[in-house]
Specification:
Blueprint (H helix, E strand, L loop, with lengths): L1 H6 L5 H9 L31 H19 L1 H6 L1 E2 L1 E8 L2 E2 L2 E2 L7 E9 L3 E6 L5 E3 L9 H8 L5 E3 L5 E3 L9 E2 L13 E8 L3 E7 L1 H4 L4 H8 L5 H14 L8 E5 L13 H19 L1
Antiparallel strand pairs: 1-10, 2-5, 3-4, 5-11, 6-7, 6-12, 8-9, 12-13
Length: 288
């Protein structure tokens, strides 16, 4: 995905637009979304707007979907992949170059995602958590409103999770081409922030194997005392496994300038200790 983001150009917008329009159904009325200004050649004497990062990210996700479909149409028809990209751009200069993002006092953060990855910013002030992504499920407010006009149904599976068309957990993804006409889209949700680096300890990205069993607050609190980002990720993963997560589990911890500077109490420690004891008791009962 990073390679695709680097290589896309505005000249590919029309190609991506025609590809999605060819999916029919939902996309018959699609106007190009974020990429609308680049679909048609501007009138003579006029120039298109600058091809900024949000447009580049949107185009990259659409082209990745197109490439996936072209590489193996049978797999792409029935398989969907979530994807998340976080770009951190230092805005600090120092003698000899740019200050690295993990030490920058000022930086720009852009997160683009489809699916159910959670991107969480941890403030140094009390370890407060700031979610940067919304889960793309049919029952979330944004996706529910987008899909409502299609008249498509959602049902609950045996685990109590909402399924779009009775089959899909995610309503935005790369792939699942057989459902494109019903509203499944590879268009990413893009979030941007200008950050004062010392006010944030880290950024955490986690997959649904983690969020199925842990709250946002528990995730950031588990990482707060780790000696380095790898140990922080291991702490989150290990606790999710203790609680019996059943899904694929990925954790990435990205340090920022406020690393190690969180002040205030660990608000979820007592809850985590209780949940750990409950999990241990349940495991003992299972073995008896």
């Amino acid at each position: 995905m990073h390679r695709v983001i680097e290589e896309v150009t505005p000249t590919q917008v029309s190609e991506a637009y025609e590809y999605l329009r060819s999916q029919g159904g939902y996309f018959k009325r699609w106007n190009g979304g974020e990429l609308a200004p680049w679909i048609e050649t501007p009138p003579e004497g006029e120039s298109p707007p600058p091809f900024e990062l949000s447009a580049r990210m949107s185009l990259a996700f659409l082209m990745a979907d197109k490439q996936f479909n072209a590489a193996d149409p049978k797999v792409a028809a029935t398989c969907g992949a979530t994807a998340s990209v976080a770009l951190l751009h230092s805005l600090d200069w120092r003698e000899g170059g740019i200050t690295p993002f993990y030490a920058a006092k000022r930086l720009a953060l852009t997160v683009a995602h489809v699916g159910d990855t959670r991107a969480l910013l941890c403030h140094t002030d009390g370890g407060r958590v700031e979610p940067l992504t919304e889960t793309h499920h049919a029952d979330t407010r944004g996706e529910s409103a987008r899909l409502r006009r299609m008249g498509s149904s959602r049902v609950m599976d045996s685990f109590g999770e909402s399924r779009f068309l009775g089959a899909l957990a995610n309503t935005r993804c790369i792939g699942d081409s057989q459902f494109k006409g019903s509203g499944i889209t590879p268009e990413p949700t893009i979030t941007t922030r200008l950050l004062e680096g010392p006010h944030y300890a880290y950024l955490i990205l986690v997959s649904d194997g983690i969020t199925d069993v842990l709250s946002d607050d528990e995730i950031v609190d588990l990482a707060r005392t780790a000696r380095d980002p790898h140990a922080a990720a291991q702490a989150v993963l290990a606790f999710a496994e203790e609680l019996g997560t059943q899904d694929n589990s990925t954790v990435i911890v990205v340090p920022l300038a406020g690393w190690g500077q969180i002040h205030g109490p660990d608000a979820t420690k007592d809850l985590r200790d209780y949940r750990r004891r409950q999990a241990m008791n349940n495991e003992r009962e299972r073995r008896m």
